[in-house]
């Protein structure tokens, strides 16, 4: 965990994973009301279609992740307890409904936490799987050219700060926030290692249980590219407190090198 002065990490308090999508809630609405369709609306995010983000992974220890390779998940360093052999993590993939009988579940074999990780910055880790998951992978940014514009976040997380996890995969969009603006909210931000996204008025954000999940956008060819890893923030969707993400491009070569050893 990052120290309290740097706000809270976004891993689940107890073992279910999540990545929450928040948005401004209509006046008078409540997170528990039922919409006309009979579904329970989440504050903000909309349901992702089956196969829309096939690289998304739910991890049993309470975090999210993305398929870096078919047998390697990229997640956050604070989601794992050091490096070494580890068969205790279950990765769930291939579905938007976590209760679907079609869900692909694979155990971990090894974990590699970012070298030098000490709770501040360098918030990435790799999880080696016992067998490949036959789903598309998510490429990562190798330079800062995609550190701009609007990003997508997706996952199964809480619909409000302190809320419960979701059964269905949700998605939402958040805009890039400059380092200068983000430092006004978070003086301890490590520029160059962390990237921020969110609306100044709040309302849209990742939240508890979302740690390790990807923040991504389209590249120049229209393909998805991962720009960030959900890391930490002050609460969820609060005004003037954007989400803080690991800046993937900074660590792209280190991630590639680490993956080659797994």
UniProtKB/TrEMBL annotation:
The keyword Transmembrane does not apply. One of its GO terms (biological process) is proteolysis. Residues 42-260 form the Peptidase S1 domain. Keywords: Disulfide bond, Hydrolase, Protease, Serine protease, Signal. The keyword 4Fe-4S does not apply. One of its GO terms (molecular function) is peptidase activity. Residues 1-31 form the signal peptide. PANTHER family: ACROSIN-RELATED (PTHR24252), HYALIN (PTHR24252:SF7). This is Serine protease.
């Amino acid at each position: 965990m990052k120290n309290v002065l740097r706000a809270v990490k976004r891993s689940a308090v107890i073992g279910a994973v999540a990545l929450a999508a928040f948005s401004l809630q209509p006046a008078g609405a409540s997170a528990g009301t039922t919409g006309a369709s009979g579904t329970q609306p989440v504050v903000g995010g909309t349901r992702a279609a089956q196969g829309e983000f096939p690289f998304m992974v739910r991890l049993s220890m309470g975090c999210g992740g993305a398929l870096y390779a078919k047998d390697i998940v990229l997640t956050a360093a604070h989601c794992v307890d050091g490096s070494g052999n580890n068969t205790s993590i279950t990765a769930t993939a291939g579905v938007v409904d976590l209760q679907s009988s079609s869900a692909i579940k694979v155990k971990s074999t090894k974990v590699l936490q970012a070298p030098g990780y000490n709770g501040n910055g360098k918030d990435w880790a790799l999880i080696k799987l016992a067998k490949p998951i036959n789903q598309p992978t998510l490429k990562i940014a190798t330079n800062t050219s995609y550190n701009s514009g609007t990003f997508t976040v997706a996952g199964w997380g809480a619909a409000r700060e302190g809320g419960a996890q979701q059964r269905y995969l949700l998605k939402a969009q958040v805009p890039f926030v400059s380092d200068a603006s983000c430092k006004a909210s978070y003086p301890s931000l490590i520029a160059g290692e962390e990237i921020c996204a969110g609306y100044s008025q709040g309302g849209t954000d990742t939240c508890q249980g979302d740690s390790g999940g990807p923040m991504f956008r389209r590249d120049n060819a229209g393909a998805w590219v991962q720009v960030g890893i959900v890391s930490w923030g002050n609460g969820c969707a609060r005004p003037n407190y954007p989400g803080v993400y690991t800046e993937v491009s900074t660590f792209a070569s280190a991630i590639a090198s680490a993956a080659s050893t797994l």
